[in-house]
Amino acid sequence: MSTIKMSVSLPIKLAFLIVVLAASLAAMLYRVHQATQFAAEDPNGELIDGSVHNDARRILDEVEEVEEKRGPMNVLLFYADDWRHDTLGAAGNPVVKTPVLDALAAEGVRFSENCVTTSICWISRATLYSGQYLARHHFEMLGKGRTITINGTDVAMGFEVPQNETIYSLLKQKAGYTTAHVGKLGLWVGMDYNLNWDFQTDDDGWHWSMIGDRMWHITEKNTADALRFLADRDKSKPFFMNVAYFATHAVDGDKRQYMPQNSSMSMYEDDTIPIPATATEEAWNKMPPFFTEYNEGRARWKWRFDTPEKHQSMMKNYYRMASEVDTSAGIIINQLAEEGQLNNTLIIFTTDNGNFHAEHAYYATYFLLLNVTPPETCSIRVPLIIKDPRMSPKFKGTVNDDFTLNIDLTATILAAAGMEPLPSMMGRDMSVLYRKGGLQAAATAQARRKAIVPTPDKRQYPDPASDGDGKYHSGSEYSWRTEFFYEHPMHSNPDYIPASEALVRKDYKYFYWPNFKYEQLFDMKSDPGEMNDLFNSTNPVHQQKLKDMRKRFVELKMMAHSDFPIVL
């Protein structure tokens, strides 16, 4: 344990130097691995053309043969909290320093349009553990066995997914993995609901705490616990570890909100954090009429951002905590490199939800603003970086702008372990977007699924609309989603957190606020700040778009709420 304490207690600047050197070594090893791993691929790195059923089957056979020789991959998931998509140097943020995650993006794929299906901590985490929309896993409120009363009826709000159907249990029981959860669980169900892990810590809600004979910062403890698992695990088995950082979540009950490590306080001292263009009362006044001073997001804005001085102080501490997570990830990755496991490990970085940094004079995680001001910022759009040993070299260092969702994480991780998602799971294996022959093989699998009637043991793909034009991709072309349904449940007081639902596309976005039967329509291309609601527009183009999106919204909502196996 003394070695672990020494590792995580290094000053941040020295730790940065170590992890940057480790990242360089990792990059070199990875390039050597890729050069040998994919020596048989087309010299131009192109997918092979031809009959989708024949060539895709052949390519899939080749990939499976390579993976049999490699053996089961480890899976390392870095899962941060309240961290929006642009809190990364690799995403173009000019202030925040994230050299390790930037290096990870340079060696993998960064998904720039990755979103969550419900933007709040516990629901998003339940979606990760189950691979399901809230509409299916029903975990609306924190706590096991809790109920709320709706129209005089008690409705259970506990996590309803059977224990043996969570990602931890499936990897352990079906694939022989050693499983670990480090950090924030986010379910508040207590140790009586064990998700079938071999190693578990549950640190949540604090930044500093006395543990043993000294004070620990929560990110420091997350790092130490992760290193302890790696050191003590059964090394004859592959592992899945979720390092679920509480950072960059604030401590809501403390007026300081964000409390980084002492060694980080010199970072960003001389920087000026840009204030968003929409951080104005004018923008707040354009919010729906039921958004009042009692709204939770408005209240948190007053805690954190209602003066320029407060905005600078809060954002600098937020960025310091993000840089600490980056350093932690580097220390853990370096440990894998020392063990020789780096090239046999799928590494993922993502977060449970984003948040507002004062846009619209507001702070919240749950409100569905996808784009608010250039560069785009949001609450539902979160970072996603994947570094996969199976990755085709032509995708390394690229940015993918497809709509990927947190329901896809579960399917992707299970597929990396050689497992099919359960019929109850609703996401897609994202590796088809960056593996040799992935799209062709996926087209074959999709064609097989679409040719049969839904049964309890088969998952179905809906026909996804293409860019809202009413046309559909099917047949030999694999249909990755171009839109998605979003949902956030109601709070017991809708004035505090109103329920929200939406159909999200890159060109338009349709809102529905069920508590108030209130609709909105935004043109995301001409109005990325979502300042001009087109719901009452007399323009025939807008009227037709509203009609079309209402119809598609209902279709996708019904699919999300259905009981039969479906992939969204």
Automatic annotation (TrEMBL):
Q: Which Gene3D superfamilies does the record associate with it? A: Alkaline Phosphatase, subunit A
Q: Which InterPro entries match?
A: Alkaline_phosphatase_core_sf, Sulfatase, Sulfatase_N
Residue ranges constituting the Sulfatase N-terminal domain according to the UniProt record: 74-419
Q: Which organism is it from?
A: Cyclostephanos tholiformis
Q: Taxonomic lineage of this organism?
A: Eukaryota, Sar, Stramenopiles, Ochrophyta, Bacillariophyta
Q: Which family does it belong to?
A: Belongs to the sulfatase family.
Q: Where is this region: Disordered?
A: 447-473
Any idea what this protein is called?
Answer: Sulfatase N-terminal domain-containing protein
